Please model this.
Amino acid sequence: MTSATAGHSFSAMFSLVTYMVLIVGVNWAFAVTPTVSLPGGEVWPPVSLIVGFIFVVRDFAQQRVEHHVLWAMLFGCAASWVMASPDLAIASAAAFAVGELADWVLFTVTRKPLSRRILLSSLISTPLDSLVFLGLIGRAAPFSFLTMTLSKLAGAFLVFWLLRRREELAAPQGA
Model:
């Protein structure tokens, strides 16, 4: 095994492990962080701000390990099931599965620059994740859906903006 192959292998493994650790971490954070009351009796989980970054970390992991990221996604679905409270387990696992699979499909089939693939996959997957979760727990009110989705998109928009700037700076001048 060459040092380049070993470096790629370590990088790929590090990406998958980071993604899986973040899934466990965010599930734990949802369990211990109180929600914020919104108008009309709706609630907002502040931890949803972190979820958008996890979708992006999955995109980076997929870029390194391609479709092997599906194994890590399966782990994440199982972790969501196990770590959620019994009343939220189905909603949590289903939302994770639907959102992450949508993200995986869009990231896979889109042949745009990395920044646009991250933005497009997040624009579709985060609302799906929110809608499935809130729908299954009986709280799919418009304001809750909007705040949860926008919170998740905040991380994706930040990464998109940073990558877009880097891509623009790396592009040949005058092209």
Remarks:
- The chain is about 80% helix and 0% strand.
- Residues 3-32 form the longest helix (30 residues).
